[in-house]
């Protein structure tokens, strides 16, 4: 009887204590990488959310040209993640992080002073290329360190990867607040402040990031991309992750349309975005803790995709009622909550799955490819979604189609995952 007493006293451990214990157990390198993700997003989101308004109002660009500039930035970042990942495998984490910081500093400074179209495009391409270098380096090393953390008996790797999501989302929440304050001066000041943050990151990593990280061997042989394209299980996970990312992208495409319909204004969007960020920052670790105890990686992704599908279905079901005002905002709020909780289940699980599917020495390439393949799916899917939303179909039908996509993605997930054999090229 007395043996059960300690278990009863430890069970009510607070969420904060669990998160603090996880943080204390992390290696100095993992803490540095997670703080890096936070700093990256603060610097990035202090500038980029305000770029479209700057280009359209201050520079006077046409709407189609603003869209082109934003699309080029996304392509130069997301589309080239696979290149950054391959370079990380070949040259190591430190050179890619440092080079990416230098390019991001140059890009932000250039953007702050750019006035003509060619200079603006060059600056945003530089900003996107910077992330294509440093993000796969950081994310792949966090994933590798998370596996080592799990093997050392500290707990499921998804806890570490959940902290990566929390750090990124906290930066995405704080960055726009900083940017909004700086815009009281002007856009150039916001750009220079963003560059300043990356100067600090660069200085910190010059001092703290190891020249060589133990256990991460650089791979010299080629052929990794051909092997990747033959890895059906990995590509299936990429496609399922792409379906999630396409759904997440509807925060910027379908959700504004629904909010405008329900309330006659875009103003509530800011509150819905804040709701999503706060949910991730406060609930990501508890959700991951629950999922790690009850679900494997496939079931976690499945549950997340089903919740996302339910979010779209909720809007589709409410559309025929034609609610407006506060009631008209409720379906959009339900969508945001279900999408965000689904994101909390899908993202750590997908990142945790990559090391199981990648050959030894190729984790950078596979981490980058996860984002690049998903980015291509978003690019194609967003065009199709835009056509659906802008067409003459009943308002509920595009949301029903969007609800079907995560359901289809569940069927793509591998039934089981086994560790691949070490690459002969290592």
TrEMBL record:
Transmembrane portions of the chain? 29-52, 58-75, 96-114, 120-139, 160-181, 187-210, 231-249, 269-288, 300-317, 323-342, 363-384, 396-413
Q: Where is the Major facilitator superfamily (MFS) profile domain?
A: 29-421
Q: Which UniProt keywords apply?
A: Cell membrane, Membrane, Transmembrane, Transmembrane helix, Transport
SUPFAM superfamilies associated with the record: MFS general substrate transporter
Keyword Ubl conjugation appears in the UniProt entry? no
The domain of life is Bacteria
Any Pfam family: MFS_1
Main subcellular location: membrane
Q: Which GO terms describe its cellular component?
A: plasma membrane
Q: Does the record bear Transcription regulation in its keywords?
A: no
Membrane topology term reads: Multi-pass membrane protein
State where the protein is found: Cell membrane
Which terms does the record give in the GO molecular function aspect? transmembrane transporter activity
What protein name applies here? MFS transporter
Source organism (scientific name): Streptomyces coryli
Ranked from the top, the taxonomy reads:
Bacteria, Bacillati, Actinomycetota, Actinomycetes, Kitasatosporales
């Amino acid at each position: 009887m007395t043996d059960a007493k300690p278990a009863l006293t430890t069970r009510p451990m607070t969420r904060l204590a669990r998160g603090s214990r996880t943080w204390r157990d992390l290696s100095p390198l993992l803490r540095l990488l997670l703080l890096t993700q936070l700093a990256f997003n603060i610097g990035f989101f202090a500038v980029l959310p305000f770029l479209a308004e700057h280009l359209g109002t201050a520079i006077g660009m046409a709407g189609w040209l603003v869209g082109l500039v934003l699309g080029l930035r996304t392509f130069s970042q997301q589309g080239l993640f696979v290149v950054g990942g391959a370079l990380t495998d070949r040259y190591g984490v430190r050179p890619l992080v440092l080079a990416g910081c230098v390019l991001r500093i140059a890009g932000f400074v250039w953007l702050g002073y750019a006035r003509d179209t060619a200079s603006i495009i060059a600056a945003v391409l530089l900003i996107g290329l910077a992330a294509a270098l440093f993000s796969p380096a950081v994310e792949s090393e966090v994933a590798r360190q998370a596996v080592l953390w799990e093997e050392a008996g500290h707990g499921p790797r998804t806890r570490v990867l959940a902290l990566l999501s929390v750090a990124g989302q906290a930066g995405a929440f704080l960055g726009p607040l900083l940017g909004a304050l700086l815009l009281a001066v002007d856009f150039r000041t916001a750009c220079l402040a963003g560059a300043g943050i990356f100067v600090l990151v660069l200085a910190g990593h010059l001092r703290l990031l190891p020249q060589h990280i133990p256990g991460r061997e650089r791979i010299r042989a080629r052929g990794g991309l051909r092997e990747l394209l033959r890895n059906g299980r990995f590509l299936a996970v990429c496609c399922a992750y792409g379906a999630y990312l396409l759904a997440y992208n509807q925060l910027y495409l379908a959700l504004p349309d629904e909010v405008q319909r329900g309330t006659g204004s875009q103003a509530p969007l800011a509150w819905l975005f804040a709701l999503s960020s706060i949910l991730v920052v406060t609930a990501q670790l508890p959700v991951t803790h629950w999922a790690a105890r009850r679900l494997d990686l496939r079931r976690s992704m499945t549950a997340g995709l089903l919740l996302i599908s339910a979010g779209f279905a909720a809007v589709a079901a409410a559309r025929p009622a034609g609610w407006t005002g506060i009631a008209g905002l409720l379906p959009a709020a339900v969508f945001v909550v279900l999408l965000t909780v689904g994101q909390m289940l899908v993202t750590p699980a997908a990142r945790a799955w990559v090391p199981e599917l990648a050959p030894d020495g190729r984790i950078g390439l596979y981490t980058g490819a996860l984002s690049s393949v998903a980015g291509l799916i978003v690019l194609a899917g967003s065009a199709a979604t835009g056509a659906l939303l802008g067409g003459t179909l009943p308002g509920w039908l595009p949301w029903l189609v969007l609800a079907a996509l995560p359901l289809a993605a569940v069927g793509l997930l591998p039934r089981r995952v086994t560790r691949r054999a070490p690459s002969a090229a290592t």
